[in-house]
User: Fold this.
Amino acid sequence: MDSREIRVMPDWLKNQIAAGEVVERPASVVKELVENSLDAGARRVVVEVVDGGLTSIRVVDDGCGMGPEDARRSLLRHATSKLYGPDDLLAIGTLGFRGEALPSIASISRFTLATRRAADQSGLRLHCEGAGPLTEEVAGLAPGTEVLVVDLFFNTPARRKFMKSPRAEAGRVAEILEELALGHPAVHFLLLSDGRKVLEAPASADPLGRLWAVLGAEVCNNLFECRLEGPVAVRGFISQPDFHRSTRGLVHLFVNGRPVKDRTMMAAVTGAYGPRLPKGRFPVAVLDVLLPTDQVDVNVHPAKSEVRFQNSGAVFGALSRALTLTLEEAPWSALGTKAQRPAPPRSPQTPVTPNSSLPFRAPQARELPGEAFAMAPSSPTRGVFDEALPALTEVPAGSVLEAILEPAAERYLGAFADCYLIFSAPEGVLFVDQHAAHEGLLFQDLLEGWGAGGVRKQGLLVPLTLAFTPAEVRVLVEYSAHLRRAGIELEDFGGGSVLISALPPDFSVGALKATLQEAAAALEGLPVLPGKELLPRQRQMLATMACKGAVKAGDRIAPAEARRLLELLRKRGVKHCPHGRPVLRSLSLEDLERWFKRAQ
Ligand code: ADP
Ligand code: MG
Assistant:
């Protein structure tokens, strides 16, 4: 590069560069503006977005407002009312402090700030477009502040290109607001997206009331309080160990009310549950760590979502202790099993069981502990007969035992342990793992249907409504095209629930909710329209559907269904479930004779 003269950047360029760090997407604007409202002591914050905030974002609060001089100054770079001297930086008690948000946002949008202090006769409205000049007018306003951000990124097309669909951006906005609402239960929050109310959280003296509004009744019914006093105090709620999710998405962590992403804290939470949770599963937790502001450095990242602790060991220790105490003292530990534990109050909504003409459905299905996959152990435990017992073999193609699979030859003897269907033939005995078998068949159906453009659907006579968290509802609705292709028809039913009107035939509804939760986790982040190829995460969703939609170990199966299951396995040559476990094994007559020393 040729040598070029060095120049100090003009302010508008500095602002746009800062905006690159502070304003990643519409949700970041919402975060900064709502943080300002909270710092201004607002009791009520209304957020309105259009097209996920890409078209416009409006944040209105009833906080302290600004006088005309401060209003003008607030748009200058590095202008803040929250830090005056070096000592202030060591003990930050407000959410904002960098004085960057307003000038950054104003530099990349058509920006209007209207504000009035309660004591002033009138307010001031300031307007600017990108790097353009500031205009102002006196305005009659209610006390408080209103910021309107129109056409975000209109002058930074590179950034605009990285935006997702309006719906996805609206989802991010809702997530940010939920997080802030969880950290500030005494403030009334309202979020409107394209005119529709997405979140309303009235001020609540009781933190559980706020959790109820944000996370929904079902999650709250499974939470227990978690508290610790001391130099590092902990306040919050955590889920009982048998209520878990496939992602960390419902672990909400705060430091002095500020939402944070912190590995140490996350490790303390998952570590405290330890083996109480199945592998790869995560709890629900809303935890605020309270400590003196001079012991935490919040000036680590422009978006202020990361922190550095002076003594991270103490934070880890306090969180671990708080969680361990709750987990050890809670009723489920003393009583052992879920069935014996007094059930927490349930929401009145129970899923309606649709008409059951589908084979293999077990409406009275016994739920196995912890909604986990009901799978037989992959390696059989060894018992006293180990030595004498010949190894069970999978049915090899062309073997004598293939004969057992001849439709005419088989005879159903019954089920052992409500899981292994046993058939006999002159050549030997055949065992079928009912769950693995049904799962393998469903998976084959789903894969074939997906490949052919859509899995066959069966309308439910009585549609089902299921309750989810607002975030889960958003993802499910956003990815409904994927689900439709997988044979599940659903729509937003309002109030945190979805209405399911069709499912693949032969699909058990017992674990439908868990299926959809896992599907949402698998799909989130993919393009909203399924493409030609089957992506690994879509395949994972289909495998989950097959696993959860199949009869479980423990479900009773009628003899006719057992025979039909074998018939289908035979016809379609399904030998393994999606996890690779065998579905059929056999013991030949010769094996038995050797076992009983009738033959060599
Ligand atoms: P910071 O929050 O880091 O101070 P901002 O650019 O976000 O920086 O805001 C600049 C200043 O504008 C704040 O320090 C505050 O004094 C004032 N301000 C911003 N938003 C509001 C609001 N909603 N109500 C009252 N004052 C506000
Ligand atoms: Mg701020």
